[in-house]
């Protein structure tokens, strides 16, 4: 099981309820305990959903996995799953294959199995309320109109204290699931995904608080600049 490869890096609070042998205790004592991050991208499996607006969470995890050389080839807890290290920090990647509205059936058991506190879980997903290509990094929040988030919150026993990376753009909700981007929209999303890769690296290496401060300040006027509108910060 993938769990065995990360056991030495888990913090004491994370592993305190796990029964361990004396050999494991001796092995782990030589390592600095580092709690892993679980990065999850929400989307729908299947070709007809590829490159649609509702699947930008999948796009984000795919891009991050490729940048770090992490294969997403294991089927684990109803998700495509991979694991690797980012600046010495263990990172778990998951793309639930349950379809969007049942995402929590994968995410909840994954977080529980690794005994992760929810502040070490980050969910990347599409957000219809953001201008196209703009990102927001938040430590917690509600579900809004997003059924995938509703499912995740439900399987976290209605706890909303997990991190979110919000992506994407405004459009008619009725067309959102299967709607693909036009050329300009696709370019903005591709650029946002590249930025998102750097943001996830920063979260792993420097923590959510610092990453969110830097990210959200940079993203605040991004959509205005993309339309050539001057801001007071320029």
Molecular structure report:
By secondary structure, the chain is an alpha/beta fold. Helix content is 38%, strand content 16%. Strands 2-3-4-1-5-7-6 form a 7-stranded mixed β-sheet, with helices on both faces. Strand 3 and strand 4 (89-96) form a beta hairpin. Helix 5 packs parallel to helix 6 (147-155) and helix 7 runs antiparallel to helix 8. The chain is globular. Residues 7-32 have low confidence and may be disordered.
The Cα radius of gyration reads 18 Å
For the report, how would you describe the main beta sheet?
7 strands, mixed
What is the 3D form? Answer: globular
Task: Label the structural class.
Answer: alpha/beta
Give the % helix: 25-40%
Strand order of the largest sheet: 2-3-4-1-5-7-6
Which regions contain 5 or more consecutive residues with pLDDT less than 50?
Answer: 7-32
Distance from N terminus to C terminus (CA atoms, Å) equals 51 Å
Mean pLDDT: 82
The proportion of strand residues reads 15-25%
Order of helices and strands: HHHEHEEEHEEHEHHH
List keywords for this structure.
38% helix; 234 residues; seven-stranded mixed beta sheet; 9 helices; single chain; globular; 7 strands; alpha/beta
